[in-house]
Amino acid sequence: MDIQNTSSSFSSRIIELLKNARQKVVQSVNRSMVLTYFEIGRMIIEEQQNGKERADYGKEVIKDLSKVLTKEFGKGYSPTNLKQMRQFFLSFSNGQTLSDISNQKGQTPPDQLHNHFEATAKSQEFKLSWSHYLTLMRIDDINERSFYEIESALICIKKS
Questions:
Q1: What is the spatial distance between Cα 6 and Cα 10, in angstroms, rounded to a whole number?
Q2: How many domains are there within the chain?
Q3: Residue 78 sits in which domain range?
Q4: Predicted confidence (pLDDT) per residue in 11-38, tens digit
Q5: Cα separation, 99 vs 65, whole angstroms
Q6: φ/ψ (deg, to 5) at 50
Q7: For residue 107, with 0-12 CB atoms within 10 Å meaning exposed, 13-18 middle and 19 or more buried, which class applies?
Q8: Which of 27, 51, 56, 58 has a CA positioned 20 to 30 A from the CA of residue 9?
């Protein structure tokens, strides 16, 4: 029995195990961030619109939230970043409009919004990183954006 070959094979398996674990941690953190940003976007929309089809003018939700989050967590919560989270939700929430939601019977508008947004977040399968979604949000055509999202996800799967 060759100790060096056995040791090398054993070490290689451990190294591969650790690399796979690290990759899964990175993917888990990325997915958690993307889902969190989606939910923040949903909550901003809900706060701005408060069950209405359009937001009230003059409401400075994003600006005020930015100040609070920056004080609590530091960088990363500028008004621009929060607007991107809001846009992320709007771009990837299955395309249902608030007027579609408000046509549901038996619920008040805030309840309709909350139920719709909760179902949307649960049904989303975000497979890409936040930076991928920032790029995809620049594409206006929904079909084109979906195509690139699928292609990017396939490339990421092949790499892992």
A1: 6
A2: 1
A3: 3-159
A4: 999 999 999 999 899 888 988 999 999 9
A5: 26
A6: 45, 45
A7: middle
A8: 27
